[in-house]
Design goal:
Blueprint lengths: L16 H5 L10 H20 L4 H13 L7 H13 L5 H4 L2 H13 L27 H11 L7 H17 L5 H12 L7 H13 L6 H32 L1 H4 L7 H11 L6 H24 L2 H13 L3
């Protein structure tokens, strides 16, 4: 009889191999031409806004929507080119400098892409006593932009930390006093800030939210829906590939005490890198995650001290 360290109580997975292999992984219609056409239209929009110096706001909001809809990876070259131009502009129109939404969005996008930008933009929105001016307390759009920007603060940037507290406090107060659409955005942001969200989960949520906006760009929306479905199908195919590998090595059937969680491991890899071209990276990460989970369960659930010492010594010899 085995005198191990514990007894496994893990719930059986709902994502077994047979279920995974039944997932649909093929599109009934080839949308490649449609996607390419929509992509071209979005590139044209970026070019038009880039060459129109009348307002930086539309350009920044277009980039923000592209990224929130999960399309950023399709337009990396274009976005980088546009942000290079935005970063090189020394002067912004006074009405835009006085718009907290504009400058917060500009700060967040530039810092996300690695540009050196200062938190000093917040000084313009403080009163003589060092607090944020009163008119900002009910400006949902500005507060949300400030809130999201604050999560890209570097160590020691106290103004951004203060901005986070100010935005969070006032957004909480506004719940129940704004439209349902605005409240949904507030709740979503306060639940998990944009910078910490999984890209594909954020894209799925934002596609729904964006479709309800009266001024939604239908070209962007249609491309986002097609892209999400196509990428999801590709991910399902990858999940089937790693499930075949997991089934073939047979660890879950031979070591019945371990967690059979290949789908969760694959889902974790999507949080690290979701872009379709990084298939090999996702598959490799999934396999590593599954093997680490197995070893973890050997130590935490099954092995006795003597067995684990033997196992540890055996693993150490692998590197010799």
């Amino acid at each position: 009889m085995h005198n191990g360290g514990g007894v496994a109580t893990y719930q059986q997975t709902n994502w077994n191999h047979d279920y995974i292999m039944e997932l649909e992984t093929f599109l009934s219609i080839n949308y490649k031409e449609q996607v390419e056409k929509l992509e071209g239209e979005v590139k044209a929009m970026l070019n038009d806004y880039e060459n129109d110096d009348s307002s930086i706001l539309q350009l920044l909001e277009l980039i923000d929507d592209i990224e929130r809809l999960g399309l950023g990876y399709r337009f990396q070259t274009d976005i980088t080119r546009v942000l290079n131009k935005v970063a090189s502009i020394n002067e912004t129109k006074e009405e835009e400098e006085d718009n907290l939404h504009v400058v917060s969005l500009k700060f967040r996008l530039l810092r996300k892409y690695g540009y050196s930008v200062s938190q000093g933009f917040l000084e313009r929105f403080k009163d003589a006593h060092g607090g944020f001016i009163g008119c900002l307390h009910t400006d949902v759009k500005a507060l949300l932009s400030m809130y999201e920007a604050s999560y890209l603060a570097l160590e020691g940037e106290l103004d951004l930390q203060e901005a986070k507290l100010f935005a969070t406090t006032n957004l909480l107060k506004l719940r129940g006093h704004v439209s349902k659409e605005k409240e949904d955005h507030i709740n979503h942001a306060l639940d998990v800030p944009l910078f910490r969200r999984m890209h594909r989960l954020q894209a799925r949520w934002y596609i729904d939210a964006y479709s309800k906006q009266k001024d939604a760009n239908q070209v962007l929306l249609n491309l986002a829906i097609l892209d999400f479905n196509m990428v999801q199908l590709a991910h399902k195919g990858e999940l089937q590939d790693v499930s075949k590998w997991w089934e073939n090595i047979g660890l879950a059937s031979k070591l019945t005490f371990i967690r059979d969680r290949i789908m969760e491991c694959f889902f974790w890899s999507l949080g690290v890198v979701f872009e379709p071209q990084y298939y090999s990276c996702r598959v490799g990460l999934t396999k590593v995650c599954a093997l680490i989970t197995t070893i973890d369960d050997i130590y935490d659930v099954y092995g006795s001290i003597d067995e684990l010492e033997l196992f540890t010594n055996a693993v150490k010899r692998f590197g010799m």
